[in-house]
Amino acid sequence: MNRVTASHEEGLGARYGTAFTLGEHSARHLRRILRLYLTAWEMDDLYDSASLALTELIANVVRHCPGRRATVLILRLPRERGVRVEVTDTSPCPPLSTAVDELAEGGRGVVIVEAVTDRWGWVPATDRPGKTVRFECDAKAAGEQEVTPRGTSPRNAEDD
Question: In this predicted structure, what is the pLDDT of residue 50?
Fold first, then answer.
């Protein structure tokens, strides 16, 4: 059964959490929820990085966890510092980069999460099989510009 944590604050509050069985389209729905919260928290500039990292963590659950059960928690960091996303699953295996072949389809999730977030890590569950993988994206200081590689521009398109 799916469930959402209660929020006792006005508006969207400082957190969103849900436990459910993930499927092939779950990342898309969770990206939309992430966009809603980041917009409400006036942190739209974090969306591209946070949504890519979230997609990678959800894909790992779908691919590697029997039953595809997981809990997703999106938290606004104190003092408008940024966002933290946690994905707790039922697999005791640590997240590893397994890409040996540069053309391989899988094994790059950890590398991607590390590249697009400010911090990430994981901890094993202590009371049952599983782990929590988390990442944080820091909010930009007022007046700070997003730096993009030469010849590219930040993505402004709606979620696919």
Answer: 98
Tell me how far apart the alpha carbons of residues 116 and 40 are, in angstroms, rounded to a whole number: 22
Residues of the chain with pLDDT under 50: 1-9, 147-160
- How many other C-beta atoms can be found within 10 angstroms of the C-beta atom of residue 147? 6
